[in-house]
């Protein structure tokens, strides 16, 4: 038997050190913020590629942020807001968090 198989079975299949799933309010907040970022980007006529390149990130990473699939560090959110020409507070407020 694999050394961590029993531990994973007791943790719902997660490897040691992996955290549980994100709570529903966190997921909803990430989706709302991602939608706000997408709305701001498209209202300025920017593609994901254009915005991602201006930030030095890959387009798929930005796509995951917009879909609420990826956690963002505060510094990334600040860079996103700056690239979109918006104060971070306005971006968060438009997400209605």
- State the helix count: 6
Shape: globular
Residues in helices, as a percent range:
55-70%
Could you tell me the number of beta strands? 0
Per DSSP, what share of the residues sits in E-state strands of 2 or more residues?
under 5%
Question: How do the helices and strands follow one another from N- to C-terminus?
Answer: HHHHHH
Mean pLDDT: 84
What gap, in angstroms, lies between the N and C termini? 46 Å
Instruction: Return the structural class.
Output: mainly alpha
List unreliable stretches of 5+ residues.
3-19
Largest sheet: none
Radius of gyration, in angstroms, nearest whole number: 17 Å
Summary of the model, kept short:
By secondary structure, the protein is mainly α.
